[in-house]
Amino acid sequence: MSKYYIKVDLDKNWRDAFLKKTNNNRTFYLLRCTKEFQFLGEVMPLMKGEWIMKKSYVYSIVIIIALFFCVSSSYASETVKFLVVGPMTGDSAAQGIQLRQGAELAVQEINAAGGLNGKKLVFEVADDTGNPNQATIVAQKFSLDKDILFICGPVNSSCAIASLPIWEKTNVPMISPCNTAANLTRLGHKNYFRIIVNDDIMSRQIVEVAIKTLGMKKPALVWENSDYGKGMRDIAVSEIPKLGVKVVAEDSYVPGTDRDYSAIITKYKGLGIDGVLILGDYTAGGLFAKQAYNLGFHPKLAGSASCAHPKLMEIGGQGAENFYVQAPFDPFDTRPKQAAFIERFQKLAKDRPGEWGAHAYDVVYVAKTAYEKGGKDRASFINALHKINNFEGVTGTFGFDQFGDVPAKTVTVLVVKDGKFVNYEKK
Amino acid sequence: MNIDIKKGNKISILVVIFAIFLPLVVKNEYFIRVINVFFLYSVVALSINLIVGICGLLDMGRAAFMGLGAYCSAILSVKLGVPFVLSFIIAGIFTGLVGAILGFLCRKSTFDYLTLVTIGFNVICQVVFLNWISLTNGTMGIRKIPSPNFGGFYFDTNISFYYFALAFLLLCYVIIKRICKSKLGRAFEAIRDDPIAAEYAGINVEFYKIINFSIGSLFTGLTGALFVHYTQYASPYNYTLDESIYQLQMAILGGLGSLPGSLLGTFILVALPEISRSFYEYRLLFVGILMVVMMLYYPNGLLGKSGVGEKIFSLREKFEGHQKAGGKCE
Amino acid sequence: MFLQHLVNGLSIGSVYALIAIGYNMVYGILELLNFAHGDVYAVGCFVSFALFATGINPILAILAGAVSGYIINIIVEKYAYRPVRFSGRVTPTISAVGIAYIMRNVILKIWGPETYSFGLGFRGTQIEIGGLVIGTLQIYIFVIAVILMISITFLMKKTKVGQGIIAISQSIPTAALLGVPVNRTISLVYGLGGALGVLGGILFCTYYDSIFVGIGFALGTMKAWMSCIVGGVGSMKGAIIGAMILGLSESLVAGYLSTTYKDAVIWLILIVFILIKPQGLFPAQIAEKI
Questions:
Q1: Could you identify which of A125, B171, B305, C23 might form a hypothetical disulfide with B327, taking C-beta atoms 3.0 to 4.6 angstroms apart as the criterion?
Q2: pLDDT digits over B96-128, tens only?
Q3: Which tens digit of pLDDT belongs to each residue from C20-51?
Q4: Which residues of chain A have a CB within 8 Å of the CB of C251?
Q5: Domain, as residue range, for A17
Q6: Are residues A227 and A313 in the same domain?
Q7: How far is C257 from chain A (nearest CA, A)?
Q8: How far apart are CA A240 and CA A232, in angstroms?
């Protein structure tokens, strides 16, 4: 067995520490000893393959990690880059992932057709977990990247509110596919656009459907305790009395954890409620519908946009029959353009698209239009977006107003019949 | 004059000097922002260390106290126009008081129940933040919170805030270290190691538990307030149970009972998600694995006894016999 | 409507009871906060779900789930809890939290955060008694909970293994000296706790016809813990009664007070309960060794 020796400093502490290390078996080493070293005087035996730690190496590793930050990657200028921001983990992860899939599909198609004026379209994905603090950190990180032309996202309105000031500092345009909070476009941020109809309009519409079309006389509201649900509920509460009906009861639930609506259902049954407006997502809608059915409570059911998902029927079962939903996008749309899109999306994502996937898809195409209208840098991109009228996407036809909203867009209403969504035609 | 400066102090002075000159060299705004966040989380980790590591009270609801401090300061400065300095200090005192009250209510509770109560408190606080609309704006949060300012001078750029946060961190670090080395600190450690023996040694266990909880909460509250003055937006979604566990892990990683360990643990858990965004998706999984591995092999954290730090920089000759997590604070 | 709230409360309470029994076995015996209880049995439930989705007999799916819960718990105990068994209170608790996060993220990676329909093909019927609706499933769950409680109490008192478990809960070194195979018994306890948890979880999912990743922590760990605290640590019938009380309170608070603040109110009640009667309703006589 050959022996190797290591040069040791004259520093007493280091030598003592070294001695201690070789005397016990559980030690932590970094540098592998591979050759012979001579010591000036004392010789310390070391076996081949033993490892030795040097403090300076630890320091240098720490410094390297610290310097690692300063490196930011950028693509070659033969590409046009944008950022997809959304909750890829956390409570709204399902929506964030769909967002990314919609954008991915659009990017694939655009690149296959030659790209943007010959340049390849690429995107990066950032996870804000639905947490506004994270959104600001993401914004800070990516707003330094000069190659990013625009942002597709976020999903949560609160994340948009938190991060917009930072994006605005470097004038990065944000086109949101899903923020519905009504006041987002009135906060004075010139770089914010959204292609989804806002809660003001959507809430009014579902209220109309519930009271006028369905004829609810003693309605109740079940709303999701989040910025989305609260916003819808506030507007509903002010709109329903205008149609001559009083809201008999309202209850909220915590999205993501609350599953049991039996207390609410029992209460409503006792109050003689004839219709329930569900301002939340399809999980809540489905569960409520099923539990109500099981408890012998059969009110008229209407749900807001987030209920428009095939899983509503899967979860709701028998109770979901005759459930009316608003659908900024109908996952079972049979119109040719939409049906083709749904098929392509299913190939990519194995699931039908909901509003998030469809709107993200449209955002990328809107961006393409703006780019081709001369929006090559951020400022001209914003101007080009404002000039867009009558863009025809899979989610409808629209153009931006001076606030970045799409006021002229219409939202369809669907109803569940025999376990499928059917387009409801207003009589 | 023979000044025998201990090696530990030499390193600290070097680090501080390095920290002071860092923003003059590195101009990357994003980098500075991450370091600012690191500074703030370090103070939280230090306060967790004080409560969990030094006194042995497993608190899993720290985020709630951050929220309390944050909302207190936000409401005072936005709705009532109170100047920053005042709202900041009042927020800290308020959180400390809440901590004292909670400590008082739980003074007789055993270990498990205390943990349960802190979790419950976190849940309650979050529900209140979300729903007490008139006070907290609910889910929309409080916007346009002013940056920290002293009589006209605003710390509103990343770099100016950097120095403010650095000063804050140094101050808190020094104070907590002094507490650890004082009679209070010894009482806390006695309570952690064996409450019954401590009681028999004449230490009023309940009283010291309350003091410990309240001081820890004071620091947490101050940091929470500082956080929202930095991001200029207070949102109830930042104070969840997951956040609490993540913060707890920062203190554990570095070593419960080791103050420099808290800094190291925080740095790793703040920096890693930034280095690799794909890591970010797995961060909770990573934290979980880390917790188990750490408890099996390095229960005292990286810089605690028998930890990685020891093996690298072993300066300590003494090895004490007990196996419990937590050690003398260095 | 009060009676209906009562029925709802009792049925959700029975579901909690099933899970609390599993939790109590570990908590009562080792006084260890098994933070990972919920998330581990959630994995078992998902295994059941995955198997059921392939179309096999529901009974087999349930059994497979329970067995996987048993095995996972035993493995976790051996590698993550046993080494730190005597290292104070903080270390094992944190280890358990770590396991919980790992399990939860494994589920997230494989199945995602979505809610799936999981009803085991059970077509429940409802019995209507003068406006009161009681589901047959609710009755089954209640009955199963009671049967389990009786059988486990019987197991503890009359069998050798049961007596061994009680001995361990009092003093591990003494039990070892008396010849109780400590490691094997503790593994058995954890495993049983896991299997029971899976059964409870599956019944829970069938009750709501849905399964998602959150059933582990929110339900298993938190609710089970609360039930045990109310009922008294270490007491089997305490766990069940505590669970019923919890279910009832939830139902009544949601029905009569407010659904928005439901969680906060329940926690508040619980905290007050802890502070007033920390031993629970059926306290075990525990003397602390100095």
A1: B305
A2: 999 999 998 888 777 778 888 898 899 889 888
A3: 888 888 877 777 777 888 888 889 889 888 88
A4: 262-263
A5: 3-68
A6: yes
A7: 10
A8: 12
